[in-house]
Amino acid sequence: MTSALLTDRYELTMIDAAMRSGLHDRECVFEVFARRLPEGRRYGIVAGTGRLLDLIRDFRFDDGDLDWLRDHAVVTPTTLDWLADYRFTGSISGYREGEVYFPNSPILVVDGTFAEAVILETLALSVLNYDSAIASAAARMVSAADGRPIAEMGSRRTGERSAVAAARAAFVAGFGATSNLEAGRQWGVPTMGTAAHAFTLLHDSEEEAFRSQVEALGSGTTLLVDTFDVPKAVETAVRVAGTGLGAVRIDSGDLPAQVAAVRRQLDSLGAVNTKITVTNDLDEYTIAALRAAPVDSYGVGTSVVTGSGHPAASMVYKLVSRRDAAGEWVAVAKKSAAKASVGGRKHPVRTIEDGVAVAETIYVGEPPAPNADERPLLVPLMVDGEPVADYLGAHGTGVARTHRAAAIAELPDQAFRLARGEPAIPTVYVTN
Amino acid sequence: MTSALLTDRYELTMIDAAMRSGLHDRECVFEVFARRLPEGRRYGIVAGTGRLLDLIRDFRFDDGDLDWLRDHAVVTPTTLDWLADYRFTGSISGYREGEVYFPNSPILVVDGTFAEAVILETLALSVLNYDSAIASAAARMVSAADGRPIAEMGSRRTGERSAVAAARAAFVAGFGATSNLEAGRQWGVPTMGTAAHAFTLLHDSEEEAFRSQVEALGSGTTLLVDTFDVPKAVETAVRVAGTGLGAVRIDSGDLPAQVAAVRRQLDSLGAVNTKITVTNDLDEYTIAALRAAPVDSYGVGTSVVTGSGHPAASMVYKLVSRRDAAGEWVAVAKKSAAKASVGGRKHPVRTIEDGVAVAETIYVGEPPAPNADERPLLVPLMVDGEPVADYLGAHGTGVARTHRAAAIAELPDQAFRLARGEPAIPTVYVTN
């Protein structure tokens, strides 16, 4: 199954109509941006770029796709012929994956004919809206964890393929591992896991369950201690595994008090190096609330794979410039109430003072002269239909994760406040 | 690529450990349920069942999967051999797809050995949590629309594969169509579309754009009238397409006032049969607020594919019963604070009085005697590893949609209040 039909019907019927008016081949510039951050957030993190480049490279209509479109009379035979030959041959630039973004940051810029570019709208937005929503939420959790490792464990709380994307996006944003095996295989994200309550309940006693797990996985494993009674389970865990027990996991209860009590108990049993991992419906706020508690690591599920209240990044894909009948470039923009946007080709830079970001400066029209205080934000991602290799596969995921760390390090302190507020830096337009 | 690695790592390591203790073959009953509805909702709609049965039937580890697991030492060679031969051979019963559910309704019951059943946990929850979240939100929008058609247009606001599932789930819940072509192909959901602002902006004038669209798609098409100025666009639309224009779409602005003005203008131009469709960030509340406005149909995007604030249905997959060493069935349950659940095999029925549902009655232990006032809720979905055909493919999607209408019709009036409140009927346990 190709990804070509992961597309809104109107993309194809617009091509149909544009072929009729002879304008389908007009050179165009489309831009992906978010009009706003989720309410009160200070910054967003771009994610999904590497995944998207893969999908665009492979975006083809196979015989099955074409047959279905023909049978359902979605487009005319002329357009079907055009779709049969389709591959994207244009160029794409954009923010690096892992980059910080703000309202109106043009995170992806697609140069191509109207038809070859408009057809990518649905797919591009599906990938970037979901993945960036996850990465943006995940980055806040990473900040809240203040250096302690976080694992993504939310596969069961989002669509089965989105789960893989979420694991990848959380890793880009600084999570250390995922429970999702496919994310390990496809994107090189380290995988981890403990055990479920079902494993304890399968056995005739908790002790027997712990013994099975330690025999199979070694004493470095993590034992789940809240199936029945936490203090009893901790005692059993150390008795079975010894003081070399890797970790215990707590998945319920009043966490700060619980965690402190478990730490005291582990220490009193001599298991001073046994770590405590907590996994009970955490989000950036509950993680922050555990800063003073002796937690060694976090596992986060629902809140990270659903963007912690904001499961879509509200990015849009807009035509901002096109050739006119005389071959000249014309800036275009919708003028609707509350949704007006700025037309024209953009050249965004991050303005830096003393190593700290102070503005998202977007030059409209001509590019600015190079300036040591302005870090250019657009880089080539796809040239003549071929992705730039650095952004692909597990390698690209790692590159994105590294870039995220550098981009985050540039932000002013107020970016890391969890409370609602304005974007950490303003977006400023400059017309050249 | 198989779906076998869309699985949390711990499912496989638990099998590893259970093989070590010799308990992997213990017969078990796992149950999927939600401890609660999203805050203030009155009922939920089960969706994803047909998709899940497909995925379970095809759940196999191919050579690529096994090689990756071996190379990363995820499980022992013995477990790898077991995985190589894996297919689910147990039985699954559950609520019909499209059924209404309440807190603790056992919507899926999986009978099999520990190992063959636990391995399906992640996949089953990914599918049911996402799809049911979408269907549950969509059903409220359908009620709010009060008979006027709604189309799902949110593919761009959720992961690219989740978009297909969302289109399907919204259709099960009563939406009439989707913009997503793959959902049309794979699940038989009717597809539809209009045009984007980019199409208007591609042309040298709005009039030229409308003319292209009408020439290509006929005067029955829907013209987007809010790119520049709505009254001018409506005038142009009728001039270009004639009074037989199918519809106009409004995607921005203050909808109730805007819609009324457009209706008056269309009527004054003689386009009395031209319909008005609105698509501006709608959810169940804004749809309800448009009841008095002359809207003919709705297009809903972000809010439906993200579950209108609740993108995951909080369903869990729990071991509730298993054989003991003597071969007897033992009810089991976790006892943790705030997450305690009821062990044992359940026999849920919907208690009906005068045609109206009054309780979700869950018999625990033995099944109850048949009773005309109790509609049994569990039906066979998979027998000895083979799905019951009625739930599969486009046919199954249609069956689910029909069942949803019947199940909704049984609910008391308070189920359809949009305001926050208690579940429409109580969940009552009866121990037999």
UniProtKB/TrEMBL annotation, chains A, B:
Q: Which reaction does it catalyse?
A: 5-phospho-alpha-D-ribose 1-diphosphate + nicotinate + ATP + H2O = nicotinate beta-D-ribonucleotide + ADP + phosphate + diphosphate
**Entry's EC annotation:** 6.3.4.21
Pathway, per record: Cofactor biosynthesis; NAD(+) biosynthesis; nicotinate D-ribonucleotide from nicotinate: step 1/1
Instruction: Determine if rRNA-binding is one of this entry's keywords.
Output: no
Q: Report the coiled-coil segments.
A: none
Matches recorded under SUPFAM superfamilies: Nicotinate/Quinolinate PRTase C-terminal domain-like, Nicotinate/Quinolinate PRTase N-terminal domain-like
Q: Which superkingdom, per the lineage?
A: Bacteria
Q: What does this protein do?
A: Catalyzes the first step in the biosynthesis of NAD from nicotinic acid, the ATP-dependent synthesis of beta-nicotinate D-ribonucleotide from nicotinate and 5-phospho-D-ribose 1-phosphate.
Family label = Belongs to the NAPRTase family.
**Record's NCBIfam families?**
NAPRTase_put, PRK09243.1-5, PRK12484.1
Instruction: Please identify the protein, giving its name as recorded.
Output: Nicotinate phosphoribosyltransferase
